[in-house]
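can u pls check wat happens w/ flavin-adenine dinucleotide
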Amino acid sequence: MKESEEIISFYLKFEDKEEIPNFQPGQFLTIKLDIPGQDKPIVRTYSLSDYSEKCEYYRLSIKGEPAPNGLDVMPGIASNFMHARIQEGSVILAKPPNGKFVLDMQKSIPTVLISNGVGITPMISMVKACTLVNPTHPIWFVHGARDGNFHAFRDEVTELAGQNPNLNVHFRYSRSTPEDTGKYQSVGYVDAALIQELVRQEAEYFLCGSPSFMQSIIQGLKESGVPDSRVFFESFGKPMKSVS
Ligand SMILES: Cc1cc2nc3c(=O)[nH]c(=O)nc-3n(C[C@H](O)[C@H](O)[C@H](O)COP(=O)(O)OP(=O)(O)OC[C@H]3O[C@@H](n4cnc5c(N)ncnc54)[C@H](O)[C@@H]3O)c2cc1C
């Protein structure tokens, strides 16, 4: 299913059994693809982007990675193969859910989920799990996108906020269009100043997005006195340098 200009969701079930083990919100699946023209299987990890009490499928939401601007190289191998070739009935090899970037829903300290672009995927699973399992828990969902066309899951999160009075949603668009009117809260880039303005209390912060976005928010939170032990992040690309 198309979620935005760049992101398509895939719903996975087992080929040979009914029951689908649940996972912790924030975890990912590792998949292995045999792609024509590649001399060995391509292995990639994708966050699980949905959550329900009884797991009925694993949803992966994948951005088709373009070639970087100005570089004459191939666009992303696995993501574009998924977009172009994987359809209903396709079979994919996958390992069980894994990962340590998880939300402990029993903690009493408020939760702040901060993402941009496709970094929204683990946040969707976290915000849904929290709304189902611990709906009195205060939670902020802050997401940055270019505009409504590049914003996946806007309706899903807006609907959730309608059900959960303890969920505070803030969408910030960097290049909003007239069609977006009324569907986002502010213009610009999500930064530490916005987070501080919205969350005026002690909290735990979960981040996922582009490397520069995460670096700047981690730095900003640190400068405003948030201890490292309260900040968790998932990097989709190469490992991030630590912020000292
Ligand atoms: C824990 C985790 C969770 C993740 N969750 C998600 C998710 O939910 N959704 C999602 O979409 N992604 C997610 N990712 C990212 C995903 O695993 C892949 O890295 C992503 O899809 C790109 O893979 P690819 O094979 O399409 O691109 P690759 O083929 O690996 O290429 C990546 C980029 O490098 C460029 N490139 C190719 N050759 C060169 C070259 N010679 N020089 C410079 N650049 C080059 C490509 O054009 C492309 O832009 C996650 C990653 C991790 C680690």
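The helical segments are 77-85, 120-133, 154-163, 192-198, 211-223.
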